[in-house]
Amino acid sequence: MVPDTVRRELCAIVGPEYVHDRPAELIAYSYDGTFQQQRPDVVVSPRTTAEVAQILALAHAHGIPVVPRGAASGLAGGVIPLAGGIVLNLARMNRILEISPEDGVAVVEPGVVTARLQAAAEARGLFYPPDPASLNQSSLGGNVATNAGGPRCLKYGATRDYVRGLTVVLADGRVLRPGGRVLKQSTGYQLAQLFVGSEGTLGVVTEIILKLIPLPRERATARLAFPSLDAAAETVTTVLTAGLLPTAIELLDRTTIDLVVGYLPGGLPEGSEALLIVECDGNDATAVQAEVARVGELARGCGALEVQVATTPPERAALWEARRAISPALGRLRPNKLGEDIVVPRGQIPAMVRRITAISEEVGLPIPVFGHAGDGNLHPNILFDRRVPGELERVERAATLIFEAAIALGGTLSGEHGVGSLKREFMAARLSSEELWAMQAIKHALDPKGILNPGKLFPTRPGDRTGWLAALPTLDGVVPCSAAS
Amino acid sequence: MVPDTVRRELCAIVGPEYVHDRPAELIAYSYDGTFQQQRPDVVVSPRTTAEVAQILALAHAHGIPVVPRGAASGLAGGVIPLAGGIVLNLARMNRILEISPEDGVAVVEPGVVTARLQAAAEARGLFYPPDPASLNQSSLGGNVATNAGGPRCLKYGATRDYVRGLTVVLADGRVLRPGGRVLKQSTGYQLAQLFVGSEGTLGVVTEIILKLIPLPRERATARLAFPSLDAAAETVTTVLTAGLLPTAIELLDRTTIDLVVGYLPGGLPEGSEALLIVECDGNDATAVQAEVARVGELARGCGALEVQVATTPPERAALWEARRAISPALGRLRPNKLGEDIVVPRGQIPAMVRRITAISEEVGLPIPVFGHAGDGNLHPNILFDRRVPGELERVERAATLIFEAAIALGGTLSGEHGVGSLKREFMAARLSSEELWAMQAIKHALDPKGILNPGKLFPTRPGDRTGWLAALPTLDGVVPCSAAS
Questions:
Q1: Which of A126, A138, A172, A184 would best serve as a mutation to test chain B binding (most B beta carbons within 10 A)?
Q2: Closest B-chain CA to A350
Q3: Which pLDDT band holds residue A478 (cuts at 50, 70, 90)?
Q4: Which CATH class is domain B328-446?
């Protein structure tokens, strides 16, 4: 797939020490945060935009697939080199080039880990809000590729809302620099925004200009237990129409509560069917505490069984512990999981969670649901054991039913993880043929040979989707790991 | 340009009472908020997406230009039918279809006036923040077309940040519905975002789903007078790195202050060279007042000559009066104005304002500067008298120099007005040839015949731009009105 002449040219571009093609190296670049695994033909680790441009021009000339890869913490199979070819490892491009309080921006390379930028911004009194759960591993290039979110999206928006400028290398090696250091603009098509969430299929992002905002000083958190999902959902609407805008409103359903109840200080009241964790922030401690207290009052008015308010950092940490305990707890129940990322109109959360409970019973697999209730973004996690014959088929059935239910409720496939290979077969169910046509027209205009991250985003099975999950590649001879979430 | 057979078909689609082609009617649809005027061949006023789709399919088949038009309050010539053809008047599509507190969205037609949606949202405890100065005239379709902003952008973002779903009719009559009622998503390319700011060149927006957020209850405002632009700019950085995020930070330069000093209660201290109007909002009156007081302290630390704080609505209105008085005051000085909308990196505001002052002296025309300092978005208004021979050439020279200076400082042509016809000749100076190529590739993919709003966004004079302003059309026999701002 990658001829020796091309390998030699790659060595000339980045230096032979940054071109890898031994089997152990290829395996190391064959996976992401899902169970999918597929070896590339060669891994190349460039250091500069100019090197990326040369690599892409070379790949373009030879029609070789190129898959950009950041920290590989993605949950949609976005960096799996399905067609082999070149994995473009961007981990070496990991400099924070600038933090400018005057201009209110940071300039970073794509390999910078999200938490590192946040710490650097906070040291200057500034704030980069997007907080994917993977923020200690994920890199900003991947955050841009998937439009990564997190709990704080409710108040602060997702990665898309912070991208102001990009350097992007197109499929043929041309370099684009859409946007810039300006905080707002209306000067032609928002090309930078087009690349956000495009999952490496339109270009390779090699530099990112991000908006930074003032850092709020105070936080307070409440844990609210409800006798029903409807009471929790009513609380979300009541809070958000009472003039209160919490930083985050996180939901845990009954199945998730059962998994993490041991982490909850003091346990939970009998009959707790849903839990909300609500956090507020601001600069005035009294006002922030009053806001959380008001959330608690409103929740009681909606029937909350219990309201626990935390204001000190240790109390807050204890309340968040249950939320953070979910992922490890899932792993104890079953060795494998398929973590989904659907979004529904916010008012449809109770209907969606009830539907997932019914799907769980129908397929006979546990599916705890948690997520970002204020945004309608839910993470149903289908738990299973790959070694049990027939379980993968039941996972496929459950995931299919969940996607169909979300779409039927006016929702969509992914809120913050992206589509990758894992949800591609459902794009034709979610999007109209006109919308798919428009996306493919843009893809074709910018990458006419289709070398960038092939096999992602677009459906490959227009008719019968049976077997879509089993058809995804796993690496021979390697026991699939449990997927992270 | 529009054959009689097509006129008859248009009458069949919308009814003959909604097809206009008498001279007086054509003149009524020949202008916008600039001095440009050009008659269309026919004006059609559809009521539904289906009618728009039929009109576009018909125009596409015959290769007739179509210019979508909302309230025509735009300041970039975006709705001037430069090539004649059909003006698609969307004013009849003016229903607020839904305000959903549960889902946190509004669903509107493009002809809804911005302020009307804001009032309807506030009646439900919700908030639609974008606040262009024209909000009592401008319609939401135009806000989407230009990615309209306003003072509150600093804290709350522009129109782009609120668009969640669109119904768009493409050039050939196909209907796209990108996005939806979901508050976040990462499910393929963000097509809805691509249409935001595309100024009617990629499709006609016929329905808009907008995010609504909780309505803050309390506001407080401060007026800060400075002995120098640098002291005002230092205050902006100091405030925004002290954890404070005001709703708005508006700047008035020396020339603008002179124009509106009569509106300022109590006048201004001797030697005031720059004025900031800072507003904060939130839900706790004490906290909001403390925040504004803290802004005042920080301003004094940066050398402010005077800090006036207002908390009651009448006091706040008095402070905002100077800001609102700018536009009428400009008209008293000279009969015509060219209002620009450049953006520079926030830290470059003093350099940009100094450059504009020098340009004003060089061309011999007054150019007051005001705008949204927190975002780096400035409105230099070149004041002139069209009747004076040679003045238009000096306006052209001043505008050219202003664009070139903004670009040299890392800025851009427009923050919230759009490019339209007025700034198109500078797109090749602002954007690289690769970026222009990418925009044109997208344009060609979605509108291969180029019937949608021709003559906008893209440069027509790749080489010498001399005469670009005089070349823009004005209507024979009609005295050009003063441009609004």
A1: A184
A2: B102
A3: very low
A4: alpha beta
**B287/A291 touch (CB, cutoff 8 Å), yes or no:** no
Which residues are A461's β-sheet partners?
A: none
Class of residue B72 by CB neighbours under 10 A (exposed 0-12, middle 13-18, buried 19+): buried
Q: Which fold has domain B96-214?
A: 3.30.465
Helix (H/G/I), strand (E/B), else coil: B433: helix
Residues in A touching B427 (Cβ below 8 Å): 187-188
Residues of A in contact with B424 (CB under 8 A): none
Q: What is the pLDDT of residue A481?
A: 42
Overall average pLDDT of the A212-226 stretch:
95
pLDDT grade for B324, boundaries at 50, 70 and 90: confident
pLDDT at A456: 97
- Each domain of chain B, given as residue ranges in start order, spans 4-89, 96-214, 218-324, 328-446
User: Across the interface, do B189 and A202 touch by the CB < 8 Å criterion?
Assistant: yes
Alpha-helix residue ranges (DSSP H) falling in A261-371: 285-301, 313-333, 349-363
Residues from chain A that touch B123, judged by Cβ atoms under 8 A, are none
Q: What pTM was computed for the model? A: 0.96
Closest Cβ opposite residue A186 in set B197, B239, B430: B197
pLDDT at B476: 52
Beta-carbon pairs below 8 A across chains A and B: 301
A240:B101 CB<8 A: yes
- Concatenate the DSSP letters of all residues of A154-200 into one string: HHH--GGGTEEEEEEE-TTS-EE--B-S-S---SS--HHHHHTT-TT
Inter-chain touch A283–B161, beta carbons under 8 Å: no
Helix ranges restricted to H, A49-139: 49-62, 114-122
Chain B residue numbers with beta carbons less than 8 Å from the beta carbon of A145 are none
Q: Distance between CA A351 and CA A365 in Å, rounded? A: 19
ipTM of the complex: 0.96
Q: Which long-range contacts (CB under 8 A, 24 or more apart) does B352-356 make?
A: B352/B378, B352/B405, B352/B406, B352/B409, B352/B411, B353/B229, B353/B253, B353/B378, B354/B229, B355/B402, B355/B405, B355/B409, B356/B253, B356/B380, B356/B402, B356/B405
Residue A242, min C-alpha distance to chain B (Å): 6
Q: Which of B175, B348, B412 sits opposite A434 (nearest CB)?
A: B175
Q: Would the CA dihedral through B124, B130, B135, B137 be positive or negative?
A: negative
Please name which of A410, A406, A407 lies closest in space to residue A379, comparing C-alpha atoms.
Answer: A406
CATH number among 1.10.3720.10, 3.30.43.10, 3.10.180.10, 3.40.190.10, domain A4-89: 3.30.43.10
pLDDT tens digit string along B237-255? 999 988 899 999 999 999 9
CB contact under 8 A, A240 and B105: no
- Give CA–CA dist B157/A110, Å, rounded: 24
pLDDT digits (tens, 9 = 90+) for A286-332: 999 999 999 999 999 999 999 999 878 888 888 888 887 887 788 88
- Whether residue B240 and residue A423 make contact (CB cut-off 8 A), yes or no, is no
Buried b (16+ CB within 10 A) or exposed e, B353-384: bebbbebbeebebbbbbbbbbbbbbbbbbbbb
Q: Up-side HSE of residue B53: CA atoms within 13 Å toward CB? A: 12
Fold of B218-324: Alpha-Beta Plaits (3.30.70)
- Minimum-distance CB partner of A197 among B176, B186, B216: B186
Nearest to A446 among B149, B187, B441 (CB): B441
Q: How far apart are CA B338 and CA B357, in angstroms?
A: 16
Which residues of chain A neighbour B430 with C-beta distances below 8 Å? 187
Q: Residue A214: which of B184, B245, B290 has the nearest Cβ?
A: B245
Judging contacts by C-beta atoms under 8 Å, the chain A residues touching residue B160 are 190, 193
